[in-house]
Amino acid sequence: MIMKKIFLWIVWGMFLCQGCDRFLDIQPKGYTIPSKYDDYRQLMNYAQMAKALDHYPVYITDDAQLGSGDEENNFTSMDDEIKNLYAFEHGAVFNDGVSDPIWNYAYNRIYVCNTVINNIMSVTDASESDKLNLKSEAMVARAFEYLCMIGVYAPAYDAATASTDYGLPLISSEDVADLNYSRSTVEQVYTAIKQDLDDALPALLDKTPNTFRPAKNVAYGFLARMYLMRGEYDKALENAKKALEVSEELVDLTEYTAKPNAYIGRIVRKDDPSSPYPEGMDNPENIYVRYPPSVFGLQMAVYASQELLDIYDKDLAPGAVDKRRELWFVDDEYSGVEFRGYTIFMPYIRANLALNNMEVILTAAECYAREGGTENLAEAARLYNLLRDHRIENNVHVTFANADEALVKVLEERRREFAFLGIYRFVDLKRLNKESRFQKTITHSADGQTWTLPPNDNRYIIPIPPVVKGFRPDLPDYER
């Protein structure tokens, strides 16, 4: 009976929240806190807890292109929020009454984490170590949600303004009827993320039964991401190195090919077409798995900009082939569907949007490049070459002449690796715009119109959803 009630709440909160008119859905009468260890474990294993944030911020970035007129993926056919993002519209992104899937689902998952964090230690049917471990896993999961959200709803970290910049509501209660919250500052949110990860580390396992559960290297990986977003590159490197001590394993894309006119299972091994590209916990690159909210995310829903395609062609030795460009994208036509003059993103694999070895490798490489010096540049080159050996057919190793060259090449590799995956490019644009040498103006076009977004513009900050503002108009927000 207990689990029936808690699961009724979870289903109600996670799947009906799109129609709510509250900050988050209010718990129904009869809500009951579980009393058994396995109940809490089941909460963390619930399907919605294996999801990550929606992909919509991609449409702001310089990777995305939409069609015109009646072409496939044309601008006019998109939902209003996508058109608002792509055209860099001022003001709200979502229309009145339309829920923001990142905000709603992230806070629903945070409430599940809070339920575990605040109550697991009181159960009597498990050891202290098991209870602490589960609590720590929930703390990592909560930190992940806030780390994603701070990249969406706040400006890039700036030490000079972080103590006054608007961040997010920090919710630590499992009582969704408790509306006593405020919008914490960016500094406070990062402090909470760090606290969760630091507190979780001692009780996390060195290795978990599956990668839907975080081990110690996941906490180190998220600390590395957090410090990278803050521009604290020495600390980012320290934590990235700890994460990579466990594994630098990568899938070798040079061993894979694309089946013509196939969709699901499109990417297969060359030597065994019955063996598809590994997903989820079957992929050794993945160290913490969260899937897109829709099965295949942005696949066949967006075109690659010419600028992105040019990046894939850059720095290839004669005879070399970037398998990411070959496998993840299709030009002009596919299985009878025409999109002449465009290149569409369609790997048809279920991506991991949480944490993988590629991110940690590229974080470490970026930090080594920024540090400079002979030994650091050599290590940056080793990691850069390691990744490209697994991505590029006939790859030729490079060395870096100086820190500037190394940094540019590593950042370009990061863009290639994470195109159309979650919010990687969106967050990178925001953080790199803080450096004058990497500032850029983004240009989008469709239907004969052209729109531009200058660096450090407030339109990079997704506003609080109108549904939330309607219920809590006192929450401060950015003018955009």
From TrEMBL:
Localization, UniProt: Cell outer membrane
Domain RagB/SusD: 359-457
Gene3D superfamilies recorded: 1.25.40.390
This protein's GO CC annotations: cell outer membrane
InterPro entries assigned: SusD-like_N, SusD_RagB_dom, TPR-like_helical_dom_sf, TPR_rpt
Main subcellular localisation: membrane
UniProt cross-references to Pfam families, sorted A to Z: SusD-like_3, SusD_RagB
TM spans (from-to): none
Domain SusD-like N-terminal: 42-228
Keywords: Cell outer membrane, Membrane, Signal
Keyword Signal found: yes
Domain of life: Bacteria
Record carries keyword Kinase: no
Family membership noted in the UniProt record: Belongs to the SusD family.
Protein name, as recorded: RagB/SusD family nutrient uptake outer membrane protein
Biological classification of the source: Bacteria, Pseudomonadati, Bacteroidota, Bacteroidia, Bacteroidales
